[in-house]
Predict the 3D structure of the following.
Amino acid sequence: MLLGSIEAGGTKFVCAVGDEDYRVKDRIQYPTTTPAETIQKAIDYFKQFSDLQAISVASFGPIEIRPEAERYGYITDTPKVGWANTNFLGMLKAAFDLPIYWTTDVNGSAYGEYILAREKDPNMSALTYYTIGTGVGAGTVLNGGFVGTLGHPEVGHVRLKRHPDDLDFKGICPYHGDCLEGLVSGPTFEARTGRKGETIPLTDHVWDIMAYYVAQAALQTTLHIRPQKIVFGGGVVSEAFLKKVRHEFAALLNDYQDVGKLDDYITMPLAAHNGSATIGDFALAYREVNQLVNQK
Amino acid sequence: MLLGSIEAGGTKFVCAVGDEDYRVKDRIQYPTTTPAETIQKAIDYFKQFSDLQAISVASFGPIEIRPEAERYGYITDTPKVGWANTNFLGMLKAAFDLPIYWTTDVNGSAYGEYILAREKDPNMSALTYYTIGTGVGAGTVLNGGFVGTLGHPEVGHVRLKRHPDDLDFKGICPYHGDCLEGLVSGPTFEARTGRKGETIPLTDHVWDIMAYYVAQAALQTTLHIRPQKIVFGGGVVSEAFLKKVRHEFAALLNDYQDVGKLDDYITMPLAAHNGSATIGDFALAYREVNQLVNQK
């Protein structure tokens, strides 16, 4: 069976086809330009595969994910120039007579990590995936579905207890200043230090401050949702950084809840090469095909 | 059909019987003393009703809610003297050959409010209930189940951005100092002002500080879970206080997400006289009976 994945990012698109074992058969990536040009490239790509069975899209947002909503399938009011109010799903549906699943980038990644985690632990039923990169967001898989009823989560904009050594930093979120994204997204390194994050060694104190905030996000997820696993991806994240995050998390939780072994609870993605969303898309596309078969 | 409810609080127990329309037929309440005495009183109460079909328990905690866990049905490591490691569900099961549902106090209340909200809006499928009283906690109903896989949520212990006029207050949580519960539970009034909360008029600035923190909790719930409604109960909460909370919430959210009309989104309980948990228990007990019937 041939399944399609679109990982639609604000910077680049990754389109891929794969099989029901989530193996990538072919893959392209290209920069995100205008909606018309960028989405047409995806359509042209998938048109090559006449035996394609379904497509799943993991898109940057905010997007409308409620099937009953008027603008279901749209990228809604994104600040990204030209992309607000784009009927992404509608353009795909006009081009393909196939089931197409539509969700957020982080939901796609969460689903991919959930699928991989289940291979190791069949009891896995609740997993949260965070991305800490240019932006910050999270998606949660719970009992096979996604958390988010009035719309998708926007965890990047919660407020946090400020680190005592970071009280003067105003944060960089244009909407909220010092929300999570305003405090820990990639561009905060330059805003704080004048240097890019990748040039700053992990021994620099700014990384302790970052870890304190990311640990609070993990604490919120733990205490609100109690998933079995929290996965961190995105350009800011490394295993060495997560060591710091676990340390701060343990101090914040103070043994109040049992989350099992911290090394298994707060982890890097299982998917190699940022492939979580592509695997998630294949699995969601496969699910669409099966649901269609079961309905018949 | 006769259904039983135990609302097991750290201060008092409320036991009631009611019907499948969630009408209370009989009700007693008594102070929480030792586990043996307090639970036996509940058993003696329900023994009067020979036609009882099922019982549901909404208990203070922390409790073990995972059916596969060794201590399922226990109150686990509560600081309440004498109650740690109490096999609450086991004592009930030894006394009654009936289906017994077991969940947290706030989950019971959340379920009751969900049932009542569905009577007004059949599309209601995700609701969070907070209690702000002696302690602080929340439960979320999502698609008919409860959020919480590794255990139940413990929202009371998240961290918050501190109010600029409250930076010197250390918070009163013995585990975490200035977590949500440490900043807004009922006893914080005395810790901050030397006076009991009920004697402090809503015009006092301490209520603005409280509203800022409670609004952050509502913001976290919104951005992590995106329920359709957030209900606040507990001794600290009043409609006048929630007006302040909505005001702070709107400022924090800054129109980043659409949550509909705020007056319908952040609300007092629909159940009168703190009856949310009793209604939730009746509904959960009724569900247990139906599941048993369907299995046959």
Remarks:
- Chain A has a mean pLDDT of 97.
- The radius of gyration of chain A is 19 Å.
